[in-house]
């Protein structure tokens, strides 16, 4: 299966979460309510990640989701980045996994951030062009239910 990555826009990404833009003029924009949490025992986790550069076409092999919290990614030092998302689908055994037949791919740019809605399947962040750094915000609790990972039976290729 091959996906063609489209530009990351608020409208196109809406089924999976939110895209926010850095202010064009001096000033501050507030987006705190976008980082949803359904557990009083969770605390806000702030992390930084450095990813190697990847090129298109890209082969996605693993998808993840955070069933009880939103997850925000802010591109710190990235010119372009690849986003791969999919809605959930229940298997015959009752387990929910990503429905890759309805997956979408997007290319984000510097000045954009995104917030995955709770339980949205997505691939880890992929920096294009050169290595990249991202900031990540999400709620985490000691109950161990924050992350779910699935290895895809058939990898998905993403092109431009």
Automatic annotation (TrEMBL):
It catalyses: (S)-ureidoglycolate = urea + glyoxylate. GO terms for biological process: allantoin catabolic process; purine nucleobase metabolic process. One of its GO terms (molecular function) is ureidoglycolate lyase activity. The keyword Coiled coil does not apply. Homodimer. SUPFAM superfamilies: RmlC-like cupins. Keywords: Lyase, Purine metabolism. Gene3D superfamilies: Ureidoglycolate hydrolase. This is Ureidoglycolate hydrolase. The keyword Lyase applies.
